[in-house]
Amino acid sequence: MPEPILELAGLTKVFPGGFKALDNVDLTINRGEIFALLGPNGAGKTTLIGAVCGLVRPTSGTIRAFGQDTKSDWRQARARIGLVPQELSTDMFEPVLHAVEYSRGLFGLAPDPARIEEILRSLSLWDKRNNRIMELSGGMKRRVLIAKAMAHEPDLLFLDEPTAGVDVELRKDMWHQIDAMRARGVTVILTTHYIEEAEEMADRVGIIRGGKILMVDQKDAMMARLGRTEAHVMLAQPLDTLPPAIAAFPVELKEGGRSLCYRGGDGTGKGREEVAELTKALIASGIDYVGIDVRESSLEDIFVSLLGDEEEQAA
């Protein structure tokens, strides 16, 4: 059985003026996992993180971290939680080494130069340790935020848009760093606009919109359950209508009858099998084709589809 490290029950936050940023959120995070929270701007991701980290006071609901109610034991719980904020909020005139050492001291931990060096080296910051933060690139500044969050050795680490504004090469490098954190036993919760980031790293994915959790599931299970296969068949000659043997498949004519679009399957490989049957049916019906393009749904396709369904229901 998975061991819960964070449990949210009925978590709600209503700001002055009536804006409801979180709406009765129930969520359990298990020890040692990487959990990706996906949602559009204003969905409530940062408010949720702020509530757990003590930066936002919930209107109602409970937060239990490490088996303790954070309302009564907030100091002890907060000492075990790290946060890499979305904004670059740090003293830009500080040298990197001093900033990271100071962050460790804030949580009452004894100095540990060897551990600080290990963190800085793992983030390729050791050679920059004496540089002032303002002298660093945007990607390196974000690495400093991660180093500061890791300095007090948290068991639970929040990464709020950790690779925003970072180029692709640095982003992939940071994915490796996040995976290394998990290998050391750190539970990681990240919010991201880069859905391929969640697809690459996350064990489970949650989708939030309008302060409500729409879905939480294992990434692979979500893709298997909601994924689809799409195939485009380029026909040698255009068709006006489909013969019954072809119309029995989930297909439609496109481009004035010059291509056939298939959408079906369930993300488990069934779609590809059906596409193979479709090509056999085309040949048996005497319909020639000159090319075929097959693709599976990505996590991004599922995410966009879910949000679109939610908008239609709200309309």
UniProtKB/TrEMBL annotation:
Source organism, top-level taxon? Bacteria
Q: Which SUPFAM superfamilies does its entry note?
A: P-loop containing nucleoside triphosphate hydrolases
Q: Where is the ABC transporter domain?
A: 6-235
Q: Would the keyword Signal be found if you checked this record's keyword annotation?
A: no
InterPro entries attached to this UniProt entry? AAA+_ATPase, ABC_transporter-like_ATP-bd, ABC_transporter-like_CS, ABC_transporter_ATP-binding, P-loop_NTPase
Name of one Pfam family that matches:
ABC_tran
Q: Which residues form the signal peptide?
A: none
Named from the GO MF annotations, one term is: ATP binding
Q: What is this protein called?
A: ABC transporter ATP-binding protein
User: Which species expresses this protein natively?
Assistant: Alteriqipengyuania abyssalis
